[in-house]
Design goal:
Number of domains: 3
Number of helices: 14
Radius of gyration: 27 Å
Largest sheet: 5 strands, parallel
Number of strands: 11
Length: 465
């Protein structure tokens, strides 16, 4: 039983490639090197205090991550936001402990300024040259895909589009005749039937075999795996569940038994604590800073139109459970029934002062109290009225997946142009796509980036009425 569990565990270990190893070590090593060079530049001896700071910086930045697949803009954004966060932590603890004064101020300033510039230059250079090096014949491996189905075609496209894989696709093996295959453009890549695969591998240099046969074909897969034991090729199985839209898809274990996560919240374990801690800290900080503004807005509402200053509305929260959210009242009505019309441009229900609140998003500020209550997060998919949820969940596939996390005051969709009215199903569809993209790629740095970008969007966006 123990041996079986051990074998299952080893099967699902992720091998450490040279690209991933480079991503893990590059940033910490560059940060340490920049510190030591800055100290030497200003004539500082590399004594215990600088060694200690170097070790601290290395531990806080380890492990790094590969940015080779990021866009240039994303590389610059991620490097500078990560470095500002790390430098702020070091400065805070240095000031609080009193050790900041033992370091050369010129050396620290040089280090703080030079490090992100150096990291950006190195990552941009790697992004440019690494694909060219890896795509050369000397570094390439040859792969075969068994199964010309939707999964196999998608995998083949990934191999072609990503030069960092350093893999050349030789072709497909499938038992169906070419005329029955849906991918007409791939028929010339069909190398033969599955029972001819082993013979082909023995005659040609094949490094990788990807099996994309349906899981219903288990006997065929087992027979194929048994036959491939007589080859030296590496074998991978791509089950057809990966055709679906994965949310935080990963391999996990339950008591040593491997399971595949198809749809999961990103806020499990440590990530959940990190998300909640940042929500509490930021909401308290913002509320303290804007307390006079909240009072002024509440007074302005009471003086300009009859009715309460705060407006409560039912929304869907985490796991699709109903919550009550707070907003400053911006309309002459407080609708919360089975049918609610979205605000539109020149909406007669919006008061003059309310229009100003909606354009500047000041009407959303009371939701900071929802964040403290644990009903919402500062960043997450925007909560829709219950009536709107019931409508769109029937029209848009995967709509309810956005409720795998708490709703947010601002979100990835809002900073990408989908703020305010969504008068068509297509616009709501795009908003949901951004919400799901946020779930797939969440990080604390992404949250901070969205918060910073929200300020810019509010100042220049005119989509909220």
């Amino acid at each position: 039983m123990i041996a079986s569990s051990s074998r299952q565990t080893s099967i699902f270990r992720t091998p450490l490639s040279l690209v991933s190893l480079l991503g893990i070590l590059l940033d910490p090593l560059v940060i340490v090197a920049a510190l030591l060079l800055a100290a030497l530049h200003w004539g500082e001896p590399l004594n215990a205090q600088y060694v200690l700071l170097a070790l601290l910086a290395f531990s806080l930045s380890f492990p790094g991550r590969s940015l080779l697949r990021h866009t240039r803009g994303a590389i610059v954004r991620d490097i500078f936001s990560d470095w500002v966060l790390l430098a702020s932590i070091l400065l805070f603890f240095g000031y609080a402990s009193g050790y900041l004064s033992i370091y050369s101020q010129q050396a620290l300033v040089t280090w703080f300024v030079a490090t992100p510039l150096l990291l950006t230059g190195i990552h941009l250079a790697l992004r440019h040259y690494a694909p060219k090096v890896l795509s050369s014949r000397a570094h390439q491996r040859t792969a075969i895909v068994v199964g010309m189905n939707a999964t196999g075609l998608r995998l083949a496209q990934q191999l072609r589009d990503d030069p960092l894989q350093a893999t050349r696709l030789a072709g497909f093996f499938d038992d169906r005749c070419p005329l029955r295959l849906n991918a007409a453009g791939e028929r010339q890549a069909l190398l033969g039937r599955i029972d001819e695969l082993v013979g082909f591998i023995k005659q040609h240099r094949i490094d990788l075999i990807y099996i994309t046969l349906p899981m219903a074909s288990q006997p065929r897969i087992l027979n194929l795996l048994d036959a491939l034991r007589d080859t030296t090729a590496s074998i991978y199985f791509a089950p057809d569940i990966f055709v679906t839209d994965l949310i935080q898809g990963r391999i996990d274990q339950v008591g040593g038994m491997p399971v595949v996560a198809v749809c999961e919240s990103p806020f499990t374990g440590v990530n959940g604590l990190l998300k909640r801690g940042s929500d509490i800290f930021l909401s308290l900080l913002i509320l303290v800073l804007i307390a006079p503004l909240l009072l002024a807005v509440a007074l302005g509402i009471k003086l300009t139109s009859p009715g309460p200053a705060l407006f409560r509305q039912r929304r869907y929260g985490l796991d699709g459970k109903e919550i009550v959210v707070y907003k400053f009242r911006s309309m002459t009505v407080c609708e919360d029934g089975p049918s609610i019309a979205q605000a539109t441009r020149n909406d007669a229900r919006v008061t003059r002062f309310g229009g100003f609140l909606r354009r500047t998003s000041l009407d959303e500020l009371p939701q900071l109290f929802n964040v403290l209550q644990g009903r919402m997060s500062i960043v997450g998919p925007r909560p829709h009225a219950v009536a709107h949820n019931e409508l769109y969940r029937k029209l848009i596939g995967g709509y309810m997946l956005r409720h795998k996390v708490k709703p947010g005051i601002t979100g990835w969709a809002q900073v990408n142009g989908y703020r305010g009215e969504t008068e068509t199903v297509e616009k709501m569809q795009r908003r949901i796509e951004f919400d799901l993209d946020y779930l797939r790629h969440w990080s604390l740095v992404l949250d901070l980036w969205i918060i910073a970008k929200t300020v810019l969007v509010v100042l220049r966006d005119r989509h909220a009425y």
